[in-house]
Amino acid sequence: MADNNSELRKELIEKAKSGIREAYSSEEYALMQAVNAWLELSKSRNLASERLAEWYGIYAPESAKAGSAGLAKAAMELAENVGSAERTGMGRKMNDDEASALKSFAEYGMKADSVITSLEEYLKVAANRLMPNATYLTDEKIASELLSRAGSLERLATMPASTVQLLGAEKALFKHIKYGSKPPKYGVLFKLVDVTAAPKEQKGKIARVYATKLSIALKADFFSKRFIAEQLKKDLQESLKRIAETPSRPKPQWQQQHFQPRKRFGRQNNPKRGPRRN
Amino acid sequence: MADNNSELRKELIEKAKSGIREAYSSEEYALMQAVNAWLELSKSRNLASERLAEWYGIYAPESAKAGSAGLAKAAMELAENVGSAERTGMGRKMNDDEASALKSFAEYGMKADSVITSLEEYLKVAANRLMPNATYLTDEKIASELLSRAGSLERLATMPASTVQLLGAEKALFKHIKYGSKPPKYGVLFKLVDVTAAPKEQKGKIARVYATKLSIALKADFFSKRFIAEQLKKDLQESLKRIAETPSRPKPQWQQQHFQPRKRFGRQNNPKRGPRRN
C-alpha cells in the first residue's frame, strides 16, 4: 500500500514536471524574453550615451562627438592619455581617478552596444523561424514585440486585426474609453517606417492595412505554417499605393468633434487633458 | 591696423577659452557626472537582473537563483553547457542561438556590475576629496547626489538647511504648494539608513537634524576647508538619541487636517489624490 502510494506520487510529480516542460517548450518564450531585454537595453544604452556625451564635454567642450560608438572611443582615448601631452582644448584636465571611472563607463557603453547587436542577431533568427510571414511583412523587432505584447503566438494569431493594430497602445485606448480623448491609431506598429514617414492623415490608414495583412500572416505562421508573405506584401504595397494616391480632404464636421463616452464610465472630461491641440 | 585687430582677436579668443577652462576647472563637475552615471546604471542593472531572472526561469523554473552576480554566472554556465548532459530539470531545452543570446545578456549584467563598482570607487575618492565633512556625516553617494541636485558645491553650501533637507523632493514639494497635499519630509536624505530604519513619526525629525548638520558641514567643505565632521557627528548622534527617546504621541487635532493652500495657487483639491491613507 505504502509502496503503491509512493509509486503514484512519483508518477504524479513526473506528470507535473512534464506539464511544466510542455508549457515552456516553445521557443516563443525565449524570443519574448530576448525582445524585452533588447528594448530595455536599448533604452539604457541611449541614456548612457547621453551621459557619456555630457561627461566627455567637461574635458573637451569644443568637440561635439556624435554617435555612441565614436563617443565611447574618444572618451577612452582621452582617459588613456591623461597627462601625456599638453592639452590645447578648453576643458578640464582630468586626474587619474576620473580617467579610470570615465574609461570604465565608456567600456560599459561599448559592451552594451555589442550585447544589443547579439540580441538583434538572435531576434532575427528566432523571429524568422517562429513567425516567418509576420517578420517578412514587418521586421523581426516589430514582430517580436507584438508577440511579447500578446503573450503567446496562439493569442497573437487569434486576435482580430483591430487588436493587433492597437497592441502597445493600451494606455491611450483606455484613456479614450474612459475620458473621451482621441482614439489611438497604432501601438507597436507606429515603429513601421511606412507609418513614420507617412503624412499625418495617412498614418492611421497605413497602420490599419498593415494590421489586416499581419493578422493573416500570423494565422499562417501559427496554423498552416506555409509561407504566404510574398503575396501578402504585394497586396500590402498596392494598398499603400492607393492610400498615397487618395487626395486628403478636410474632415467632415462630425468627425472634428469629441467622441462622447457613455456616462457610466465616469468623468466626461479628462482633467489631465489640456485644450485640444491638433 | 589689420595686424592689431588679429592680435586683439587672438587675445579675446584666448580669454574666452580660459574662461571656459576656469568654469569647468573644479572636480565637482566630474563628480556630478559620475554620480548620475552611477544612479542611472544602477537602475539599468536592476532591470537587467529582473529580466535575466525571468529569462533564466524558462530553462530552470525549479531553481530560484538570487542576486544578480550568482544569476549571471548560472545563466552563463547553463548557456555554455547546451546539449551536453541530459537535463533533469523541468525547463525548456535551449538551442544554440538562444544560448549565445542569453550568454551575451548575462555578460552584460556582469559588465554592468563591474562598471558600477568602479564608479563607486571614484565616488568614494572624489567625494572625500571635495566634501570630506558632508561625506563623513552621510556617505559618498548621498553627498554626491546632493551636490548633483544643487548644481555646484557653492550653491549647495549656501543653501539653507531646509532646502538641503528637501533636495530631491521637488515634485512632492510643488504638489504640496499647488494642491495642498502633505509636505515632503525629505528628498535624497531618505536614503540615509538612520531615516529608513526609523519609526514613521521620527523620520522627518531625523532628516531635519541631518540637514542641519549637513548644512554646517557643507559650509566647512566649501569655505574654511577644515575637517569638523567628527564633532558634528557626535552632536548629530546625540540629537538622534534624543529623538529616539522622546515618546511619540498622537498628533494634535489641527495637525491632522489638511494644509489649505492660498487660493491663487489654483485648485484646492488635487483630483489626482485619492482619499488620505495615512
What are its keywords?
278 residues; 0% strand; flat; Serum Albumin, Chain A, Domain 1; mainly alpha; 69% helix; homodimer; 2 domains; 13 helices; Helix Hairpins
Q: What would CATH call the architecture of the largest domain in chain A? A: Orthogonal Bundle
Q: If interface size is counted as residues with C-beta under 8 Å from the partner's C-beta, which chains form the largest one?
A: A-B, 50 and 51 residues
The residue-averaged pLDDT of chain A reads 86
- β-strand percent of chain A reads under 5%
Helix content of chain A: 55-70%
Determine the CATH topology of the largest domain in chain A: Serum Albumin, Chain A, Domain 1
Low-confidence stretches of chain A: 264-268
Q: Please, how many domains of chain A?
A: 2
Number of helices of chain A: 13
Structural class of chain A: mainly alpha
CA(first)-CA(last) distance of chain A = 77 Å
**Inertia-based shape of chain A:** flat
| Number of E strands of chain A | 0
- The level-1 CATH class of the largest domain in chain A: Mainly Alpha
